[in-house]
């Protein structure tokens, strides 16, 4: 019986995790849930899964069963000391909770890619110190993790991250200025939160995943490739030095990588539709167009200063997406804003995790100023 804490339980990842857990009540006990502000929803979830302790980061409530305040997620982990924490928090807010989990030697099921983008070096160092296991939940990194089971790190030639291409894979770049928020939020394959859906449309999500893959698997960014795969059946691939390629495949459903992370090193049954080979299908792969998807180049360049530039890039991206959704900037200006913010702060230095949070705040102020 694994004791589980779910951070970001009211989001799409958290809700999917609860679906998996509730299908296996003999294997898992939820001992804590956290959300940002949706108190009503998290209370409903707590009743359904039988947990008594919840955390809400954006509330002043002090009821006995609620931990509240900006550090509520970390305090929830410290109080419950579970066997595994699934971090499904959105954005840079997930960094400190991830750092807290590994510093306590607790297994981290990581769905918050920003944790590794903002401060991957600190998280890896703490995990090495305590022996904490980090199991990726993002479908791409879960695929890589699965492909590497039984393999030697020195045999990896390259990692290939697959991308659906989002809603604008075939749309001419010249028309990007007229893209509306409603259009950008219509993902052709996945149902996700607003931020990651817009990131998929710009391919910033894949840019973040390049950085995450570097930290998770100790592979240089110049050996991490991206290809567009519209069917989203192959979730990612690893090529080895003998030219063999391993791919992890399946229907696109986040409950699969969530279940793998929760059960690892085992697998548990899921009542999901089976892949129908008899129906016939095809697998297409193509390179992303550089002018349409500048985010990939921005991320690679950011990794020339891995201690600060990825943090700045992520903060500026979050500000840019909010501005785009509010119709304050055009879709084709999102990458411009990110590049300009990095340039403004290119010489910033940090000494520890707390400095990263200060840099994150500073980058948001700079990005907002550029919009104004």
Count every helix, treating DSSP H or I runs of 4 or more residues as helices: 14
Portion of residues in beta strands equals 15-25%
Task: Spell the H/E element sequence.
Answer: EHEHEEHEHEHEHEHHHEEEHHHHH
Uncertain parts: none
The main sheet comes to:
7 strands, parallel
What is the helical fraction, as a range of percent?
A: 40-55%
CATH architecture of the domain at 2-136: 3-Layer(aba) Sandwich
Topology:
Blueprint: E1 2-7, H1 12-22, E2 28-35, H2 39-49, E3 54-56, E4 66-68, H3 72-80, E5 84-87, H4 95-103, E6 107-110, H5 114-130, E7 134-136, H6 139-147, E8 156-163, H7 181-184, H8 194-202, H9 204-217, E9 224-228, E10 234-240, E11 245-249, H10 255-263, H11 295-302, H12 309-325, H13 334-344, H14 353-371
Parallel strand pairs: 1-2, 1-5, 2-3, 3-4, 5-6, 6-7, 8-9
Antiparallel strand pairs: 8-10, 10-11
How would you describe the overall organization of this protein?
- This protein has helices spanning 12-22, 39-49, 72-80, 95-103, 114-130, 139-147, 181-184, 194-202, 204-217, 255-263, 295-302, 309-325, 334-344, 353-371, and strands spanning 2-7, 28-35, 54-56, 66-68, 84-87, 107-110, 134-136, 156-163, 224-228, 234-240, 245-249.
- It has 14 helices and 11 strands.
- Strands 4-3-2-1-5-6-7 form a 7-stranded parallel sheet, sandwiched between helices. Strands 9-8-10-11 form a 4-stranded mixed sheet, covered by helices on one side.
- The chain is an alpha/beta fold.
- Helix 4 packs parallel to helix 5.
- It has a domain at 2-136: Rossmann fold (3-Layer(aba) Sandwich), CATH 3.40.50.720.
């Amino acid at each position: 019986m694994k004791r589980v804490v779910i951070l970001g339980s009211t989001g799409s990842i958290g809700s999917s995790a609860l679906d998996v857990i509730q299908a296996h009540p003999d294997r898992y006990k939820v001992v804590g849930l956290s959300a940002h502000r949706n108190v009503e929803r998290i209370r409903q979830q707590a009743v359904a899964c039988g947990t008594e302790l919840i955390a809400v980061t954006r509330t002043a409530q002090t009821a006995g069963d609620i931990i509240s305040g900006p550090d509520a997620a970390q305090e929830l982990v410290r109080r419950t000391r579970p066997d595994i924490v699934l971090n499904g928090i959105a954005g840079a807010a997930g960094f400190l909770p991830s750092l807290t989990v590994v510093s306590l030697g607790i297994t981290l099921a990581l769905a918050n890619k920003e944790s590794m983008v903002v401060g991957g070096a600190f998280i890896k160092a703490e995990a090495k110190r305590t022996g904490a296991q980090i199991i990726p939940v993002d479908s791409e990194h879960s695929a890589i993790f699965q492909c590497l089971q039984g393999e030697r790190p020195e045999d990896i030639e390259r990692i290939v991250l697959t991308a659906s291409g989002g809603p604008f894979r075939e749309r001419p770049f010249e028309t990007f200025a007229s893209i509306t928020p409603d259009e950008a939020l219509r993902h052709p394959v996945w149902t996700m939160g607003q931020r990651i859906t817009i990131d998929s449309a710009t391919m910033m999500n894949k840019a973040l995943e390049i950085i995450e893959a570097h930290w998770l698997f100790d592979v240089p960014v110049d050996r991490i490739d991206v290809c567009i795969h519209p069917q989203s059946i192959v979730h990612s691939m690893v090529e080895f030095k003998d030219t063999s390629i391993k791919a992890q495949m399946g229907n696109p459903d986040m409950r699969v990588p969530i279940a793998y992370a929760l059960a690892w090193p085992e697998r548990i049954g899921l009542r999901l539709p089976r892949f129908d080979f008899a129906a016939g299908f095809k697998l297409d792969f193509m390179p992303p167009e550089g002018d349409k998807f500048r985010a990939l180049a921005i991320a690679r360049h950011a990794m020339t200063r891995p201690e600060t530039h990825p943090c700045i890039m992520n903060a500026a991206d979050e500000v840019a997406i909010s501005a785009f959704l509010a119709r304050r900037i055009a879709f084709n200006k999102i990458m411009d804003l990110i590049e300009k913010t990095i340039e403004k702060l290119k010489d910033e230095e940090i000494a520890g995790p707390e400095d990263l949070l200060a840099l994150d705040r500073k980058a948001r102020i700079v990005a907002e100023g550029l919009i104004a």
